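1st attempt posting a full record on here, be nice pls
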Amino acid sequence: MDRRLAMDAVRKMLADVGADAVIVPSNDCHFGEYVPDCFKVREWLSGFDGSAGTLVVTTEKAALWTDSRYFIQAARQLEGSGIELMKLKVAGTPSIPQWLHSLNVAAVIVDGDLFSRQEFASLTAALAPASLRAVDDPFRDIWKDRPAMVSKPIVNMPESISGASVVDKRRAVASRLACEGPFAYIVSACDEIMWLCNIRGEDIEYNPVALSYCVLTEDCIHLFCHLDSLTAQARAYLEGQDVVLHEYGSFREFLRAIPAGVLRVCQSSSINVNNWNAAFEMVQPADRDACFKEDPTAGGSIAWLRSRKNKVELAGFRNAFINDGIAWVKLLMFIDENLHSGRLNEFMLAEKLKEFRRECPDYLGESFEPIVAFNANAASAHYSVTCEADAAKIRPYGFLLMDTGAHYPYGTTDTTRTLMLSDRNDFTGKSDHLLQQMRDDYTLVLKGMIDLATAVFPAGTRGSQLDILARGPMYPTGKMYYHGTSHGIGHHLCVHEAPQIRMEESPLVIDEGMVLSDEPAIYIEGQYGIRTENVITVVPYKENSYGRFFKFDTMTLVPIDIRPVNFKLLTRKEEQWLYDYNDHVYRTLRPYLSKQEALWLWRQTV
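the predicted structure (as tokens):
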């Protein structure tokens, strides 16, 4: 359906249900980062296909809110649509409630499957005196050619890879919940369920998860998934771990049948409004507060346990980074050897890295949509191309940014490198291909990455307290980046997990065993983007009368391009770290490389 016709159909739907506006988020009913095609209503209506954004359609106007990663992309994709771009965290940008108030909107609807209980309550208060109503999917009859929901095989993750049994994990979760008497812990996040049940799926692109729900009780786990998708091995394992299997579509019926005397436990930020209402159907309104307990752990009990990787998981990560490092070296060497051929383009390089990764029999696919961006394209933090026709040709000048990751059975990777592409190796200011500003910006980003990677900090430190280490070097130049500095990384799970290191305050602490990214950046619109990203893990440093202290250990094994570095801006400690890191990459990967590849890598580190 033409988008203009679709918007007309939405406005007719609003008139039919007696509403003035509808708010369309980017998520599905499980609130994951990536969503199945059948839930991409916002993309279908607006044409904007970034991963984050909220569309609001009124009877006369429409606007879309997104963050700094997508300002350039969204402006391009919304052009001519009649949808106004709203830039989050930019001065003068109204919030969604403020914008709706300015239009004197009286009645707003949302799909109750796509808004959490917490978000719905907050939005209800912010929109008052306008009313907010949750409805069943309002686009069901409008989106005629809507993709069907997919269901692919669900496999077991052996305990030799996960490092813990389902029974042990269930008991650990129950211990954190600390409930007295019978309880039902309702879990909607698919990645949490995969971790808890030692299973993996492929229902969502880039995320090794199966669409699922679960309810954890004092003596078992009720798992709701597409039962036909379970392999025989996975089914047998789950049944031997006190997991009761149910069909995915029966979840809401199960919630409605929870007895009134059972304590409902969940995160109000991750259960959708419709499921919340179903869970309390057996409880009188006056008794609901007494029958509900918010998950006592900030961010969720399962997420807290999952973020602290055990020794088996950490060993798996290191293996994954060896495999990924080998593929990266092959790619970097390929670029070096073919830079002047005129054949290279962004799409080709993304596909070439996949080709090199496939040489490892354990490679299971990319962990997110690859970002390969040349010069000005890299100024859009999440730029990507999906076909060769749209890809920029790679020429021997300027910067090339590549941000990609992969899944292996025992770990997930995420690495960003920015390469200098030039005919000359003279960076004294005479080069026609690399301005001094670009050289300095590259070095400031590198300094931030190193300063965070070498941090020592006491137990109880939060991400916001470490964030300045990555941003600090660039602040004196009046530059910064708007996205987070770091995100947690799943163990053959979603590449983005909590906790995060970012400016915004969070109660989550950075603790031993966590695996995090370290990725400061600088973006100059219309010119270039620079980001250097390693993955780090939290390890013990020392313990004394002042308490426990931690430091980071770097896992990534991909050489850092030293050609554009302005060494005058590095401290002696930072310079030594850089040379030691590249030497460590060489020594670790050398046994897995051909003589030619090893020689090429050695030349990059001296």
